[in-house]
Each structure stands twice: as C-alpha cells, then as structure tokens.
Amino acid sequence: FSTSATAEGKVRVKKIAGEQCPPGWLLDCDGQPTTDPNTLYGTPPGTILPMGGDQAYKGFGLALMIDIFSGAVSGGLCARETPITPNGNCVFLMLIDPGHFGGAGHYAEQVRQLCEFVRGCPRVDGVEQILLPGDPERMTMAKRQADGIFLDDQNWSQLTQLADRLGVAAP
Amino acid sequence: FSTSATAEGKVRVKKIAGEQCPPGWLLDCDGQPTTDPNTLYGTPPGTILPMGGDQAYKGFGLALMIDIFSGAVSGGLCARETPITPNGNCVFLMLIDPGHFGGAGHYAEQVRQLCEFVRGCPRVDGVEQILLPGDPERMTMAKRQADGIFLDDQNWSQLTQLADRLGVAAP
Question: Is residue B26 a contact partner of residue B11, using CB atoms and an 8 Å limit?
Fold first, then answer.
C-alpha cells in the first residue's frame, strides 16, 4: 500500500471529476491543509500527506525507509529536489522462502490459523464481516466483473478523447 | 515503532497517573471508543486501536504482516485467542548489508543526501526544524541527561513500593 494518505491517481481522478478530496489528504504549496485536488498539480505543486492521521509521523518514517530501500540499498537514487530520472521510479523487491526459516508447512498452518482467528473475532453492531487485506479488492473485482466499471463522465470523456487522438476505437 | 496508535506501556502510565488517554487510542471491551485507560486492563479487556486514523486499515495490515513474519516465518506462533506462551513474544530480525547490493559507499551517500534534502525542505510558519526518525528520542535523551527523568507521583510511588517489597533502596 502507499505510505501516503492516498495514492496520487485517486487525487487525479477527483481533479478530473471536479470533486473535492476528503480532509487529511492534501497540503497546498504553502503547506496548508486543503481539499482542492488542483493544488497538487499547481505551480509550485502541493503535496499528499503521509498516512497515519495523528500518527502521520509513522507514515513519514515508513516512506523514508522505503526511499532508503528503493533508492539507496538498490543502487538507485533517493528523493531529491530535482529528480534525475523524472520518468522513473527505483524499486526494491524482497522474496522470502518460508521453507528456509520456520518451514513452509508451519508457515501455511500459522497463517491459516491467524486468518481464521481474526475473521472470527467478535464484531460491533453494524459490522457484517471482518475483512483481511485483499478482501475489498476481491469484492470489488467480483462486482466489476458482474456490473462493469463505473467511471464518471469527465474521466470517461478524457479517455475517449485520448482514444480519438491515438486513433483507437472506444468500446 | 509500534503499529498501534500507541504503545501499551503509555496506556499503563496514564492508568497509574489517573489520566485519560487521547481519543483514538482505545476501544473498550464492547468495541466502543473510549479515553479511559482502565478499560484496557478490565475483564474482558479493551484493546488498542491500530495506528493510522482514517488509514487505520493500513496500520492493521502492517500489524498482520508483522505477526506473519514474527509468528509464521520465524517458526514461532501467530496470535490466537488464548496465547500458548503468555509471557513471551516471537520476533523476526532482518539484517541487510548494503555492500551486497548497491554498495556501502553508494548507500551512505544516498542516505546522507536524502537526510539533507528532507531537513532542508521549506517549513510552514511555527515549525522551527524538520525532524527525522530518532531526532525526538535524541533530544529527549539530552534533556533528561541534563534535567533528570520526570515521573508523576503515582508512577513514582508504584516504583518505590516495588523497591520496598524487593528490599531495594529507592534513589
């Protein structure tokens, strides 16, 4: 997940749709809180806040460490005022084989038990089910495969204009 | 850092001091928001919220992954309703040698540049300096080495009672 309060693409969708962002997503170019998505694309640009609300210092710390992993450990470049590679991002990927540590079977059994425990916790009134990471995305995918993908008129219009310009037939 | 809104020890200090916790730290045993630190130690106990405010689902996801690393990958045990080892925590430690990746010199230079860039960012009015992780702790250590460690009467009294019981002279 992003270590900011929202992903940049979600601000862009709000901008194109002509909608305001929720409070807590953005600062304008003077460092003041705003809900106007246009501030992020102004000159000078605003910024997206780190995730975390009252604990946003933790989101900032996570973002800093990710910059260090992706930019410094990787052999790439960390953030700077004028990016050297404006069209690229550095990346750090780590793969762990549980078979080299506690064992693949042990791993699978512990994760299964943990998921079952969390899903089975008591729920407050009004909460129908407890979700684990990936559940909302799986539910959204099922819904969109059944009903299609909703796009507001402005975002759809930008896509069809782009298709026109590239000579691609819009569906 | 902890992936919850606060560390448990800070709630305990509030409880002993007879103070309320800030909103956003705790739920009572019925899953309702509360500022009363006693709820965390009741029967049944309340709980500490995950970090993140409006993005607390990210704090929850981090906590879940840490449980999987510490409990499942390590060969230990993940969280469950009745802990098998109530007095212990499982742990996962990862050490990375930048010399095996982008190089130790590259790493040091990128991190130095990143820290300098972040510390040098423009500040809003009223912010005297930009802090990096560890700065507040270093400032607190310097202050406490100069002025001593402040403890409220109730926490001090609990410590001296414990010292009495163990036959240790309080300083």
Answer: yes
